[in-house]
Specification:
Number of strands: 4
Helix content: 55-70%
Protein name: Ferritin-like domain-containing protein
Largest sheet: 2 strands, antiparallel
Order of helices and strands: HHHHHHEHHEEHHE
Pfam family, one: Ferritin_2
CATH architecture of the largest domain: Up-down Bundle
Number of domains: 2
Organism: Dawidia cretensis
Distance between the termini: 56 Å
CATH superfamily of the largest domain: Ferritin, core subunit, four-helix bundle
Radius of gyration: 22 Å
Oligomer: single chain
Shape: globular
CATH class of the largest domain: Mainly Alpha
InterPro entries: Ferritin-like_SF
C-alpha cells in the first residue's frame, strides 16, 4: 500500500484536506503506530479520519438540500404569482420573468428528484404571503415593489447557497448545489440591472431591500488579507467578494414571507 501516493491523490482533489482533519504528520503518525502486522487496519484509520473531514450522512446532506428546496419553493411561487398578477409586469419585461420562473420550477423539480434518489423525504411546500403580513401590501400591483422583493430573494439565495456549500464538500450533491447557485447569481445580476443598479453588491447598500439581505457585505477582510490594503477602495473590495449567510440569517429574511403552519 503506497500511502504517499494515496495522500498525494487526496491533496490534488482538496489542498485543504489537513485543515479538515488534523495535519499530515499526525495522520501519518496514527497510521505508523498500528505497525506492519496491523496493516489491515490502515484503511479503517484513514477512512475514519476522512469521515470526520467529509463524512455527511444521508440525513445531513438531505437537510442541506431541503434547505435549498425551501428557498426554491419560495422563488418559484413568487414568480408564478407575479406572472399571474394582471398588469404587474410590463410586457417588454415579461419574457425575462417567464424564463426566470422556468428556471426556479426546474430547480424545484431537480432537487425533488435528487432527494428522491437519496430516499430522503422532501420538505413540504410552505404557504407563502409575499405581502409579509401587509408590509409589502402592493407587491402584486407595484412593479417597483415586486422588483425590490425579487432582488431580495435572489441575492439572499446566492448568499444562502454559499453559506451551506461547505457542508457538501466531498458529496456528489455539491455539484448539484453549485449548478443552481451560479444560475441564481445570474438571476440576481439581471434583477439588479432592471432596478438600474450595478450587477454586483456594493458594501451593504440596500436601495429599499430589507437590510438583513446585505448584512456582512461591507467587510473588506478576506481570510487574513485586508483588500483595501492592496490599493483598492472599500467599494471595490466589497464588490469583489460575496459573503455567505447562515441558516439563521436566511430564516430571518425569508421567515416573514412564510405562513406559519
Amino acid at each position: 500500500m503506497n500511502l504517499s501516493r494515496i495522500f498525494k491523490a487526496i491533496e490534488s482533489v482538496d489542498p485543504e484536506v489537513y485543515e479538515r482533519t488534523s495535519n499530515r504528520r499526525s495522520l501519518f503518525g496514527n497510521l505508523a503506530s498500528v505497525g506492519v502486522k496491523a496493516a489491515a487496519t490502515v484503511p479503517l484509520i484513514l477512512g475514519s479520519s476522512l469521515k470526520k473531514a467529509y463524512g455527511k450522512g444521508k440525513a445531513s446532506v438531505g437537510d442541506v438540500l431541503n434547505y435549498a428546496l425551501t428557498l426554491e419553493y419560495l422563488e418559484d411561487a413568487f414568480y408564478e404569482q407575479g406572472l399571474m398578477a394582471e398588469g404587474l409586469i410590463p410586457e417588454n419585461r415579461r419574457v425575462i420573468f417567464q424564463q426566470i420562473s422556468k428556471h426556479e420550477s426546474a430547480h424545484v423539480q431537480f432537487l425533488l428528484g435528487v432527494l428522491d434518489s437519496m430516499d430522503v423525504t422532501p420538505v413540504s411546500k410552505p404557504e407563502f404571503d409575499f405581502t409579509a403580513n401587509g408590509e409589502y401590501a402592493t407587491v402584486w400591483s407595484s412593479y417597483a415593489v415586486f422588483l425590490t422583493l425579487s432582488q431580495a430573494f435572489e441575492d439572499t439565495g446566492v448568499r444562502a447557497y454559499k453559506g451551506r456549500a461547505q457542508e457538501l464538500v466531498g458529496q456528489a450533491a455539491l455539484t448539484a448545489a453549485l449548478q443552481i447557485h451560479s444560475v441564481e447569481a445570474r438571476h440576481a445580476s439581471m434583477i439588479r440591472r432592471l432596478r438600474a443598479e450595478k450587477g454586483w453588491i456594493t458594501s451593504a447598500e440596500t436601495n429599499g431591500v430589507p437590510t438583513a439581505v446585505y448584512a456582512g457585505e461591507d467587510v473588506t477582510m478576506q481570510g487574513t488579507v485586508d483588500i483595501t490594503g492592496l490599493g483598492y477602495t472599500t467599494a471595490a473590495a466589497t464588490q469583489a467578494f460575496d459573503e455567505p449567510l447562515t441558516p439563521d440569517q436566511v430564516l430571518a429574511i425569508a421567515g416573514p414571507f412564510i405562513v406559519a403552519s
